[in-house]
Amino acid sequence: xxxxxxxxxxxxxxxxxxxxxxxxxxxxxxxxxxxxxxxxxxxxxxxxxxxxxxxxxxxxxxxxxxxxxxxxxxxxxxxxxxxxxxxxxxxxxxxxxxxxxxxxxxxxxxxxxxxxxxxxxxxxxxxxxxxxxxxxxxxxxxxxxxxxxxxxxxxxxxxxxxxxxxxxxxxxxxxxxxxxxxxxxxxxxxxxxxxxxxxxxxxxxxxxxxxxxxxxxxxxxxxxxxxxxxxxxxxxxxxxxxxxxxxxxxxxxxxxxxxxxxxxxxxxxxxxxxxxxxxxxxxxxxxxxxxxxxxxxxxxxxxxxxxxxxxxxxxxxxxxxxxxxxxxxxxxxxxxxxxxxxxxxxxxxxxxxxxxxxxxxxxxxxxxxxxxxxxxxxxxxxxxxxxxxxxxxxxxxxxxxxxxxxxxxxxxxxxxxxxxxxxxxxxxxxxxxxxx
Length: 436
Ligand SMILES: NC(=O)c1ccc[n+]([C@@H]2O[C@H](COP(=O)([O-])OP(=O)(O)OC[C@H]3O[C@@H](n4cnc5c(N)ncnc54)[C@H](O)[C@@H]3O)[C@@H](O)[C@H]2O)c1
What we know:
This protein is an alpha/beta fold. It has 18 helices and 14 strands.
């Protein structure tokens, strides 16, 4: 089977590599020439555990190809995926210009029957829009082809993307033709050998499932963050409350962790997009809008805690551990670390930061306004406070003794609640966490 993927970013690249791992011939297409050149040299363009080796192996075996040419990429494809970005507009709505451009290019270059699958996260109605753009291009050049557009939203998590793609909880496909259903079933069959988790539904439901899932996950985080903030006020411990809640099977124990807010390329924009879709239809989604507001506030909690501990921040040296929006990725889109850095620089604090993978991306934004440390202890040198923002494994058991020797102050702000208060306080530090 031969497929093409338009957009070789996080989702496009991981999908392409994983499909090729299952013996499918994959063409990954991107407008970014430098990205394609790096991938052709066998270099990965994102940090994702396991991706490097899988990419090189499949490219060497001749199943994985990279190109900037849509015409070349889709020449023999049975399925063409659209996996381009769908960023937020200022009003929270979705910028569909990359998706419509991809549709336009498909319409201009396709010369055979094909299934087009929108893998980008798109509002209800977008697959229909894609179909109409392609149809218009075909009719302009007098071509008569069968084009089926299906919705196939992607649920992979950054940091565990390969595992999620290779053994997904479910694959959702919105179809309205038997032919498209057969093609998509054949494409995903290799991923369904252990158990069949391929779900067919109508196109609108598939498009909405993705937003509803992300909004539910984001809601759990904002909910727990509000409970944690209340814990701080009443002297309760969010870790205990979480355990007490999570044992109820109806609630479940996953995704109940309080912290300094969610970030990344999906939750923030998808929550806003859902609210915006509702608003455009004259409806207000009260819960969804509150989820976003609570998260915005939560990203400010770290700096509030620093002020509580240190007072005036001007001239204070603050060490930040972790910059990516979560561990095992170099993605810093909407990361809480950026809100913290902005606020600290605004307050004229000195900021030193360390992250195992995301330093380069952050340096592009902040340049030399931040000291980029070579490791976690280098960042903590002469610091008045250390702030844990992203819970990379290597930050889990720091040497408090060493920190005492190298730090100027004695404050630890734990933005992810990973340290034990007693242990930290016994070493003579002031410990601030989220709700405990
Ligand atoms: N990142 C995730 O964890 C994740 C998970 C699930 C779903 N999604 C969704 O998947 C979509 C893609 O997200 P991403 O994180 O991979 O984005 P990304 O920004 O990493 O990648 C998008 C890529 O598309 C390319 N592109 C844009 N227009 C193009 C065109 N006309 N032709 C060819 N290439 C083009 C860009 O150069 C870029 O490389 C979004 O809708 C996102 O919401 C993302």
